[in-house]
Predict the structure.
Amino acid sequence: MVRLAPLLLLLLYSAATVAGGAPLPARFSIVYRLSQAGITLAELERKGRLAEDGSYIIESVAEPRGLAAWILDGNTEERSQWMLKEGKVVPLRYTYRENGGSRKKRMDLEYDWGKGIVIDHHSGRQWRLAEDTQDQTSIQFAIMERLRGGEREFHYSLLDGKRIKHHHYRVTKRKMLDTRVGRIEVIGVREVRPEGKRYSLFWCAPRYGYLPVRIEQHKRGSPTLITVVEKITGFRSPLRAAEKHLPVSCLRGTLPPVILLK
């Protein structure tokens, strides 16, 4: 049985603020398509909203599509709540749920920054919080916030439900990319890992607050999993109407973390 679990990790979203210092939209949604070896595996829809207490709530659902719907069991749901404090993304609560199939992974994480611990209310486990610890979704917003601030290299810790892992990212280059939302300039952000290890490569669009519009998972120098944006709503962008009809050459390839952050 193939699970959608790893798919929800590829997804990422944008920074807590958009380019030019404007706040993240009070409501927004993004649709991504995940593929591997040119075969569509799933569609992931991510919705965000600003809560009354000033925190952001990001909800994501990954559903199998195409032939993959005959193989992949159920869907994957994810919910992340975080605050932006002094330019840093601070996670508050994170839930993860796999629906369908024999393996039903669950996580219900609560971040207690006062005590310096994070508790999984589902398993009863707890971990000591490391500096800049993020959840599977908030880490993406945290990276985009660093980009917005002009940083080119940064480190984060990620709790995957079993242990806290440390991640190192570095800005690579700028280029133009054809996407479903037009031809736009993107900045590459690569996960720094030892030679031969799997790594993630994000292509982030300054036009959309450094939102990742294409995510690649590489192994031995070649992409194995690709996630590409299909639709963006809620963001204001100076897109020309003609740009929306450009050929999507970047989608002709292989691939699906949800970004797999390992």
About this structure: The radius of gyration is 17 Å.
